[in-house]
Amino acid sequence: MKSVLAFLHFEGNCRRAMHFYQQCLGTELQLTPYPDAEGQPSSDADAMIMHSQLNYKGQPILMASDSAPGGKVHAGNNFTVSVDCESLAELEQFFAVFADGGTIRLPLSDMPWGARFGMLTDKFGIQWFFNCALTQ
Questions:
Q1: How many beta carbons lie within 10 A of that of residue 39, not counting itself?
Q2: How far apart are CA 100 and CA 6, in angstroms?
Q3: What are the chain's domains?
Q4: What is the pLDDT of residue 134?
Q5: Closest by Cα among 70, 77, 63, 82 to 12
Q6: What DSSP string describes the chain?
Q7: Which of 65, 73, 75, 113 is deepest in the core (most CB within 10 A)?
């Protein structure tokens, strides 16, 4: 396993929150807005954030996004534990054991960012992301 990080979910204020956390922690911030209607990277300074991450000494320490339009964020669904795996075998193993008794929200699938990725809620109600780069 490469890392386990918290992934925070916001309802339209991810950019503001992550800038605040960046200032508090003295880290680097990467922001990727949702694409515009044509599927291109948005140039709107207020665009909702699809992915953001704080890096400390070149390593990610916190990730976040705005929820998709229509998604409601509240205490209990405002964070996810994100696991970055070292191999596809490890990814499949972790996904299977965490899914036992839980709910798969997105089956493991190849994603446009060059990784296999899946989402689930475990039997205790905790949300999980599992990710593995396909270039390994």
A1: 6
A2: 21
A3: 3-31+67-133 (3.10.180.10)
A4: 96
A5: 70
A6: --EEEEEEEESS-HHHHHHHHHHHHT-EEEEEEPB-TTSSBP--TTPPEEEEEEEETTEEEEEEEEPPTT----TTTSEEEEEE-SSHHHHHHHHHHHHTTSEEEEEEEEETTTEEEEEEE-TTS-EEEEEEETT-
A7: 65
Phi and psi at residue 56, to the nearest 5°: -125, 120
pLDDT score for 37: 82
Task: Please give the pLDDT value at position 40.
Answer: 82
Task: Compute the distance between CA of residue 47 and CA of residue 49 in angstroms, rounded to an integer.
Answer: 6
Q: Burial code of 51-83, b = ≥16 C-beta within 10 A, e = fewer?
A: bbbbeeeeebbbbbbbbeeeeebeeeeeebebb
Write the pLDDT tens digit of every residue in 2-56: 999 999 999 999 999 999 999 999 999 999 998 888 888 788 888 899 999 999 9
